[in-house]
Amino acid sequence: MSKKGKVLAPMCVCGRGRKVDDCCMAIIEGRRKALSAAELMRSRYTAFKTVNRHYILQSWHSSTRPRDIEFDENTDWLGLKLISVSKVTNECTEKTAFVEFIADYRCNGVMGQMHERSRFLSDEGIWFYVDGEQIEPGSGASIKRPGRNDPCFCGSGKKFKKCCAGVSAQ
After folding, report:
1. 24-60, pLDDT tens digit by residue?
2. Which residue has the higher pLDDT, 32 or 169?
């Protein structure tokens, strides 16, 4: 609740700084479509964070879509950072875009990162995830640890020392 007694809408976990219902959930629930590969990337991250198997598979291009997807129940996605977005338009009028991102996670108390360059395809105005290339192996050693008084990277709004510092020291 805010100081004035109003209930505050939760912020979207994608890190864009918008209310969840006006951001990725509108795409995941089909109230609007992703307007770019970056928006689809953010909505897919949110779907992984909220364990929405249906949306992840639905937003995966049919040429590479698996039958099903398994979730590691011990993995907690902590934050998403888009590094770059690049578009390519070919003569067949299909639009391809590449999104490089880093997603921080915690699995069994160990911090890690997934660093990937993902390929997306716009098919008749609808963006789909096609595939991705790992840029570097995700490991706790590759994470730049925040300072004790820095905001925690998990998005809680707390200082690192009062949030994930104890977990990441394990």
Report:
1. 999 999 999 999 999 999 999 999 999 999 999 999 9
2. 32
How far is residue 19's CA from residue 16's CA, in Å, rounded to a whole number?
A: 9
Q: Which CATH number fits domain 20-168: 3.40.50.12780, 3.10.450.50, 3.50.50.60, 3.90.550.10?
A: 3.10.450.50
Rounded Cα distance between 119 and 90, Å, is 14
Pair 53, 41: CB distance under 8 Å: no
Helices (H) and strands (E) in the chain, counts: 4, 4
Provide DSSP, 71-93: --TTEEEEEEEEEEEEEEE-TTS
Q: What span, in angstroms and rounded, lies between the C-alpha atoms of 1 and 39?
A: 28
CA 70 – CA 97 distance, rounded (Å): 26
Q: Is 11 helix (H, G, I), strand (E, B) or coil?
A: strand
Q: Per-domain residue ranges for the chain?
A: 20-168
Looking at residue 67, its amino acid is: R
